[in-house]
Amino acid sequence: MLHLSAAVDQPSAYDADSYVALVRLAERGGLDFVTLDDGFARPGPDALAVLSRVAPATTRIGLVPTVTTTHTEPFHVQAAVATLDWVSRGRAGWRIDVSATEGEARLFGRRHAAPADALWREAGEVADVAARLWDSWEDDAEIRDEETGRFIDRDKLHYVDFAGASFSVKGPSIVPRPPQGHPVRVVDATDGHARRTAARYADVALVRAASAAQAAAVREQLRAEAAGFGRDPDELRVFASLLVDLGDGEHAAEPGHGGGGPRQTAQGPLYRGGPVDLAELIAGWYTEGTVDGFHLTPTEPFRDLERLVNGTVALLQHRGLFRTFYPGSTLREHLGLARPANRYAVTGGAS
Q1: pTM exceeding the 0.85 threshold for the entire prediction
Q2: What parts of the chain have a pLDDT lower than 50?
Q3: pLDDT score of 63
Q4: SS3 (DSSP) at 37
Q5: What's the pLDDT score for residue 258?
């Protein structure tokens, strides 16, 4: 089944109600998840904190904040993402990103900016240790036995003893294993430096592609690299990322848009037209096997998301390409991804 997601970024918006309203609208359309961007170089509220506020106001849709792996502590990042998974009852994701500018580095004063390839290698290590820390509590580690006063089975907590190129973590985590086992990891794999990290660690890879052929080529490369890392490539979902401007309502898409594909801009591939032509574009790319889904960023958040849900999504549902209800309660279930086995429990509990 086709997968759909949307960004709920709102420049200069600081009130929680506006984010709650947008995410509820996306949930009404049955979208797999929403993303909220973040970074040290941009003003605005903390994405993870905002979506933690949105979590109790929604019931099914996945919540995916951007959290950078640069200048942050891997132990704290994984604990925060695990906490979001708990407060959302298994709907958390994590859009992994890096901070590449000297200005961001000066905010912390620990080190200078590093090249993109080094930052993405570090991001891969953070993704790796996060998964290990999520597994450091076995699913049944909590006993909560009032009679004996035992809260946890210490034999089911594990040291991860991770040593990377720029950090080391002993563990275990301070947060019990998340409801999904591993919250969904999302990486924008458009940039070549990020692609290797996406192929190895991502559950969802985003690709900003201006044509179906370009998206298909990147998807094929990602799947091949994932297989090279010993992964099942069918467990990697590849989404095409598009900016969408639905201000033209039901009018036909501009030349070079619609069925002909989006137009490349400085901000990324842009579709400008109506909901009907956008539905045709999505259906065409998906049925040709180009991508597994789409990540759409509205240029006018409330206007475009409303037209996306009531127009484009409704048309795709009518054609039987997109769900009319959520099949489960977790983001992994929405994406058709299995809950990962705990690496320590599988190996007999050895730490």
Answers
A1: yes
A2: 250-252, 256-260, 348-351
A3: 98
A4: coil
A5: 46
Query: What is the C-alpha to C-alpha distance for residues 20 and 255, in angstroms, rounded to an integer?
Result: 35
Alpha helix stretches (DSSP H) within 146-189: none
| Cβ proximity of 5 and 63 under 8 Å | no
Please give the Cα distance from 332 to 291 (Å, whole number): 18
Task: Measure the CA–CA gap between 54 and 108, rounded to whole angstroms.
Answer: 29
Identify the pLDDT of residue 261: 62
Number of neighbouring beta carbons within 10 Å of residue 34: 27
Structure tokens at 179: 């409801």
**Residue 142 forms beta bridges with which residues?**
152
Nearest to 46 by CA among 69, 18, 74, 66: 66
Amino acid (1-letter code) at residue 239: F
Dihedral sign from CA coordinates of 65, 70, 72, 77: positive
Check residue 247 and give its pLDDT: 86
Determine the pLDDT at residue 19. 98
Query: Residue 51 corresponds to which tokens in the numbers above?
Result: 């979506």
Q: Is 113 helix (H, G, I), strand (E, B) or coil?
A: coil
Beta bridge partner(s), residue 65: 36
